[in-house]
Amino acid sequence: MRNASDLVISVKPHSLSIMDDGRFVLSFDRAGRLYTAYREGRTFVRGLSGTVVEKWHEQGEPEAPKQVRVLAEEEKRAFLTQLWSDVQTTIAAFRRGDARVQFFGGGVSASDLDRWLERLLAWDVQAYARDEERFLSVYKPVSILPPDQYLALVLQVTEGCHWNKCTFCDFYRDRRFRIKTDEEVRRHIAAVREFLGDSITLRRSLFLADANALIIPQERLLRILEIIHESFVFDERRVEGAFEGIYSFLDAYSGMRRTTEDFAALRERRVKRLYLGVESGHDELLRFVNKPGTAREALEVVSRIKAAGLAVGVIILVGLGGEAFFDSHVRETIAVLNEMPLGREDIIYLSPLYIHPGSDYEEKARAFHIRALAPHEVKRQIHLIREGLRFASSVERPRISIYDVREFVY
Ligand code: SF4
Fold first, then answer.
1. The whole model's pTM is what?
2. Ligand 1 binding residues, C-beta < 6 A
3. pLDDT digit string, tens, across residues 82-97
4. For residues 129 and 31, is the Cβ–Cβ distance under 8 A?
């Protein structure tokens, strides 16, 4: 018989976790679907798409870079089979009275817990496989989100990237760009709601996808936001079923089409933060990687967004242009970031470049004899950029964070 202190079921209004004395921690949404697991020093994140990403640090090497990989199909089945067995064992222990239960926050009763545990039991390997199929009937692959939005509710109001030609980026090469009609947006929202059911409460923000949904002309975007407001409730406090805000990507070239007043109209409709792929402050490097727009334009777009009262996430690609562009990338990026009117609600993401084999970037870098940075040089570039940043006050400084795209899963 297990000791009751070994096994803890922790219940929050939007998630349920099972902890087995350091052996594992498993977290589920209200539908009973796993979203994170921690087991033997390794973290597993399951996206709604069914993809499972595993993350760990090599034992005894705390300085070593984080390891990240996607589980292959067979490994995923084995992982889900083990999960199913752990869930069954825990629920049996709970029903025998061998598990402690902790309730956090209101809104969850003992009978609610019982129904939740019943739902957990329905998630065997086949149920997860069916869930993957349902996901694909609702979404095109969600290729990337900013790290603080990994748990957002994604609405694909556009598909693909309007530009789709940056040499380092293959996120949307599988689809043509298009803006959904109002009717398609309505149907998409209904399908997303049906797919997630009660588990939608785990998600607190809405993210307008795909790559640069802010390319949508202003009037049409306002109409789409209206449809969204007809379908969802917004409230910044953690009110049951309410979302705290709307987020999206944009690029310098698409951002230049909007005035400060346009951005202010988005803020009035609960848009909170926009994420801008600046990549570098060095225009020659931007041209080299076929990124549209210039550093000056990025600065102008950030200034308009901030003047409109919105927050901004600025994304810089560390290692872009390899050794050849190392110094100019650092110098010009620091210069443009230091001119941006960033405050505490803003984020600077430093995102190490991962070169996709066979990509246009890899080919061009080879043709120009550009050596990619080694991991220690990437670290040094991050350090130099951080060191060069100056903000008006330590209180008002934006958050600076690493953005490892390998960890993304939706
Ligand atoms: S980096 Fe942005 S603009 Fe460039 S291809 Fe990728 S999604 Fe499109």
1. 0.94
2. 161, 163-166, 169, 171-172, 211, 251, 277, 291
3. 999 999 998 998 889 8
4. no
